[in-house]
């Protein structure tokens, strides 16, 4: 239950906290997500399975038996996540998520308020909150490390994974292990999920030789690390934009190895995305790692490694 304590601290001190706490105690497995929706049943997600939480904390497959979350409770939870200062968290809110101490990520949706150019300025009437529970799993990168370290050289590696399978967990363990080999590691952690920094100290074990830039836009973070920390390898999560891809290509061209992740299910799917084309045209990566959930829907992650060069 220790890993859930931070999350429970944010829960409103009413029925919701009690039900979530009891439900977590009753779960005989790791809960990956806590789903809170206005006027709908509270649910837990583990692997590919959804469990509804009854008012007494028992878990059930029947959604009609789940504890119904009142609007007041969800609004109170949202304000608590924002430390009762929504204005201070506007940058995160515009992106649709807030990262809590410990690396837990809280996503939310509702009615978006947009400016004249269609860019999201804020959210109102929050309708759904998804609390993704971060865990350190030391050794999760063991199967991949032999492909990354070859003698004294570091092989740049791209991790492809659908959401929720565990790529951030693997990246975190890679940082820890590479650091343990005396390698200078830089982490561009724009959402704070890899390191989970709190007042300048990482809550997660990312190694003694690892330097982190947190909350900066990913491309800026990569460039700052290159200029200031002379990393031998830069690790970053979830490449999306052209600017991020260009920063990765520049870093690799500057002699720094890159370990990064993207959302996807197959290599072919990733190659078809125009934003990622420069990664392959410039031969940025030597290894491709595909993570997927086991067919049984359990938390066992299946790993496939391809060597691109």
TrEMBL record:
User: GO molecular-function annotation terms?
Assistant: ATP binding
Q: Which Gene3D superfamilies match?
A: P-loop containing nucleotide triphosphate hydrolases
Q: Which part of the chain is the AAA+ ATPase domain?
A: 153-291
Q: Which residues form a coiled coil?
A: none
InterPro entries noted in UniProt? AAA+_ATPase, P-loop_NTPase, Spore_III_AA_AAA+_ATPase
The superkingdom listed in its UniProt entry is Bacteria
- Keywords assigned by UniProt? ATP-binding, Nucleotide-binding
In terms of Pfam families, this protein maps to: Spore_III_AA
Q: Which residues form the signal peptide?
A: none
Instruction: Specify whether ATP-binding is a keyword of the entry.
Output: yes
Q: Which PANTHER family match?
A: KINASE-RELATED (PTHR20953), P-LOOP CONTAINING NUCLEOSIDE TRIPHOSPHATE HYDROLASES SUPERFAMILY PROTEIN (PTHR20953:SF3)
Q: What is this protein called?
A: Stage III sporulation protein AA
Q: Which organism is it from?
A: Monoglobus pectinilyticus
């Amino acid at each position: 239950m220790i890993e859930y304590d931070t999350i429970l601290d944010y829960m409103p001190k009413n029925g919701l906290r009690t039900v979530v706490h009891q439900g977590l105690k009753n779960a005989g497995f790791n809960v990956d997500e806590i789903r809170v929706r206005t006027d709908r049943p509270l649910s837990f997600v583990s692997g590919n399975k959804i469990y509804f939480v009854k008012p007494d904390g028992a878990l059930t497959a029947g959604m009609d038996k789940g504890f119904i979350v009142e609007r007041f409770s969800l609004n109170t939870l949202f304000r608590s996540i924002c430390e009762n200062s929504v204005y201070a968290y506007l940058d995160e809110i515009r992106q649709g998520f807030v990262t809590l101490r410990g690396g837990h990520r809280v996503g939310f949706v509702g009615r978006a308020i947009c400016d004249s150019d269609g860019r999201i300025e804020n959210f109102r009437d929050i309708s759904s909150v998804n609390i993704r529970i971060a865990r350190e799993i030391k050794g999760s990168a063991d199967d991949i490390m032999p492909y990354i370290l070859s003698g004294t050289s570091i092989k740049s590696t791209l991790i492809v994974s659908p959401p929720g399978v565990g790529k951030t967990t693997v990246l975190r363990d890679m940082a820890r292990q590479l650091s343990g080999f005396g390698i200078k590691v830089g982490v561009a952690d724009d959402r704070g999920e890899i390191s989970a920094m709190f007042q300048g100290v990482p809550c997660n074990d990312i190694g003694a030789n690892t330097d982190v830039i947190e909350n900066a836009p990913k491309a800026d973070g990569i460039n700052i690390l290159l200029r200031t920390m002379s990393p031998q390898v830069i690790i970053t999560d979830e490449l999306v934009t052209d600017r991020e891809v260009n920063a990765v290509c520049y870093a690799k061209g500057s002699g720094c190895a890159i370990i990064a992740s993207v959302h996807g299910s197959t290599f072919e799917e990733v190659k078809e995305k125009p934003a990622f084309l420069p990664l392959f045209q410039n031969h940025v990566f030597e290894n491709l790692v595909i993570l997927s959930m086991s067919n049984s829907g359990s938390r066992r992650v299946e790993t496939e490694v391809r060597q691109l060069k």
